[in-house]
Amino acid sequence: MNSVSRWIALTYSTLVLTATLVRAETHVFNWTTGWGTYNVDGTKERPVITCNGEWPWPDVTVNKGDRVEVYLNNGFDDRNTSLHFHGLFQNGTNQMDGPNMVVQCPIGPGDTFLYNFTVEDNVGTYWYHSHTAGQYQDGMRGTFVVQDKDDFPYDYDEDVVLQLGEWYHDVTDVLHHQFLSVYNPTGAEPIPQNLIMNNTRNNTWHVQPDTTYLLRLVNTGGFVSQYFWIEDHEMEVVEVDGVYTDRNTTNMIYITTAQRYSVLVHTKNSTDRNYAVMQKFDDTMLDKLPADLQLNTTNYMVYNADAELPDEDVVDELDFLDDFYLVPYNKVEALGDPDYRITVNVSMDNLINGINYAFFNNLTYVVPKVPTLMTALSAGEDAVNAEVYGSNTHSYVLGKDEIVEIVLNNLDSGTHPFHLHGHVFQTMVRDVAYDADTDVPHPYQEDDHPAFPEYPMLRDTIYVRPQSNFVIRFKADNPGVWFFHCHIEWHLTQGLAFVLIEDPQGIQERSSQQLTESSINACKSLGVPFEGNAAGNTDDYMNLKGENVQEKFIPSGFTAKGIVAMTFSCLAAVLGLVAIAVYGLMDLSNIEEKVINELDLDVDQVVAADSNTEDNESEPKRRINSD
Ligand code: C2O
């Protein structure tokens, strides 16, 4: 290159740089958590988690390339917190990703954490939420839209966000204690009381005639999937989870928690009437149908404020779009054979303490003593060895740029939405549902599967059907520690998660991945080590003595159900009246009956299991009525 062309190149790159600098904005947010009382669904006041004393949390809109700085101040006096920007790749900024003990220390009461990152590779519809102890079900969440007007492939007139959700009348703390309890041996999830939209029930959306809306649907609920449709209006899907798609016309969307769909809706020319915007619970996910639960909720698309509000729109059939068949707008071809395959089986079972847990390959996720990212950063060459991350974090180490395949076999009879942090993945296979009453679970068969799509759908959250399976693939091109988990918050607390440590050396080498002052301070403040293996050992990373592990499996020779009844008896004896108060339960003998009924137990069998334990030296022998 001669000096003139070098000068031109230099000037050009300076110009480009200046142009980018001018366009990119920095958005600074100062958010403090707290509690307030709100009547969100119009039927009951309850405590919710506020942002700077207000609720709901702000909806955020940024442009592609912008910087975001969130100072999250923990204003609680009795609990930790954290924030996750769901779907953002956080390339080079893994410690801003949110999950406690995966990439950061929890933020203790009175502490501040700075989430500081640039939105480089993401466009479209996202959301943010606390990644701690079900706090987003108490309202700690908002939508997060990354605008990219110059490159958005379709025309529209107006951009509208509809945040879908569900609402409980009790705070998560209370539900959580009831849920993860010996008194709930089947792991029945608490059932929400209502569906909400934009943080209210029966939401009104004012529209103009003959206008094209880009409607961004975000499900910020923590449990149940929803059906969404608009009376007498078609929707054209153009984005899912931040991935633009070819247009796909449908009347109904099925959206799990954490998923997003952007649809184009063209309004009618006439304004003489209004239309129903419907949400419906996927009731197949509920263990019971409480008599007073409204499965459908009507919201209003209002063309004419003087005309009547519409009635509920009833449909004969839930004929919704199958997202498996969507095609990404960019036509990214299917990834080839994997370099690395992870096969996991999902199941749910009781451990010896009587509590119902969720498992991938018999491992229920237990937090390590050192956040996994901090182990990866401090382990030197040992970072490539999965063992240093602990046996109960269920960690896999991925090589740089490997094609990774996750085969997930759902041995459970429920539908589960799974989310991978740090990536979108291609959905290669998603099998049909296999009815638990008439069929057995069907694991994926490598030598007998449907043809892979040419341009598989890409997204960050995908559901698996009952007793079914899916296969997803992605390229390990984002060095970091990434959580993979069920996005049903109840199931995450039951341990339905594993961890991917992607290119650990690549993490160590990048300066932007080194711990920020804020990261280190969060740890120091709570006395959590920020170096060492999963057991906190900094001398010998291969020595995991003292690591956190899950409860034991039920010893052979005991039936699971018998043990549950036994454990329940012991615990009831130990906890006694306190438990009755804490769990709000009436009468211990009734509870025992309830457990027996729920598990469909043979009473003789329970008694037999109970007396078995008399011989078991290591088990406490007290009975409910023995004190
Ligand atoms: Cu919205 Cu770990 O997820």
From TrEMBL:
Entry keyword annotation includes ATP-binding: no
Q: Which Pfam families match?
A: Cu-oxidase (PF00394), Cu-oxidase_2 (PF07731), Cu-oxidase_3 (PF07732)
Gene Ontology CC entries for this record: high-affinity iron permease complex
- Where is this protein chiefly located? membrane
UniProt GO molecular function: copper ion binding; ferroxidase activity
Domain (Plastocyanin-like) spans 34-150, 158-304, 366-505
Q: How does it sit in the membrane?
A: Single-pass membrane protein
Q: Where is the signal peptide?
A: 1-24
Its transmembrane ranges are 563-586
Q: Where does it reside?
A: Cell membrane
What is one process in the GO biological process aspect for this record? reductive iron assimilation
Please note every region of biased composition (Basic and acidic residues).
Answer: 618-627
Q: Where is this region: Disordered?
A: 608-627
- Which cofactors go with this protein? Cu cation
The superkingdom of the source organism is Eukaryota
Do you know which InterPro entries this protein is assigned to? Cu-oxidase-like_N, Cu-oxidase_2nd, Cu-oxidase_C, Cu-oxidase_fam, Cu_oxidase_CS, Cu_oxidase_Cu_BS, Cupredoxin, CuRO_2_Fet3-like
Keywords recorded for this protein, A-Z: Cell membrane, Copper, Glycoprotein, Ion transport, Iron, Iron transport, Membrane, Metal-binding, Oxidoreductase, Repeat, Signal, Transmembrane, Transmembrane helix, Transport
* Record PANTHER family: IRON TRANSPORT MULTICOPPER OXIDASE FET3, MULTI-COPPER OXIDASE
Family that this chain belongs to? Belongs to the multicopper oxidase family.
Name this polypeptide is given: LAME_0C03950g1_1
Organism from which the protein derives: Lachancea meyersii CBS 8951
